[in-house]
Amino acid sequence: MAPGRQCGNRLCALPEAERGFSRVDAVAMYSGALRDKIHKLKYEGIPGWAMIFGRLLVGWMESHPEAMHGVDYVVGNPTHTGRQPLQHIEAIMDAAYTEDVTRAFPLSPPGGHRLVKEAETARSANRTLDEKRAAAAAHAAALTWTGDTGDIKGATILLVDDVFTSGSQLQHVARRLRATGAVEVRGLVLARVPWSG
């Protein structure tokens, strides 16, 4: 969103304690070729797109040092360990780690993801807003922080996802992380759906 423009998403008007995240940045809008390529990875399992999206994320982090200042962990909003055709968020985060050759950012190495989802929950795609909220709450409840629980106490976390639609999932996961001890959760998504005013 352009600086100075009012956010049209209902979550933006909530106090930070209710929305969970302090800010959400998007690499681009969810439309056209980017939308199609996200679908190629997410639903068709074409893994080459994970490498490109990982590069995009690292490029964004490199060019936005003010947004990265103070971040202790960069974690993906996890997908279920049995997700088919692949765990697309984990694939993107693994690619981002590989792309960050100087280890400038606190990304977890492949296989060492700090936030995992071991139980499958209902998907929120193509659902009503109420169904999305219910699915988001169930998703957040199914997540586990794999590191030492002391690691998250007082931490600032950058939570990465592919698409920001209603914001419900990011909200619930951010609130879960803060309830576990994180002091701040920032969001970063590859693409956001244009919000209606």
TrEMBL record:
It holds the Pfam family Pribosyltran. One of its GO terms (molecular function) is glycosyltransferase activity. Residues 147-192 form the Phosphoribosyltransferase domain. SUPFAM superfamilies: PRTase-like. It comes from the Bacteria. Transmembrane segments: none annotated. Keywords: Glycosyltransferase, Transferase. Belongs to the ComF/GntX family. This is Phosphoribosyltransferase family protein. It comes from Streptomyces lavendulocolor.
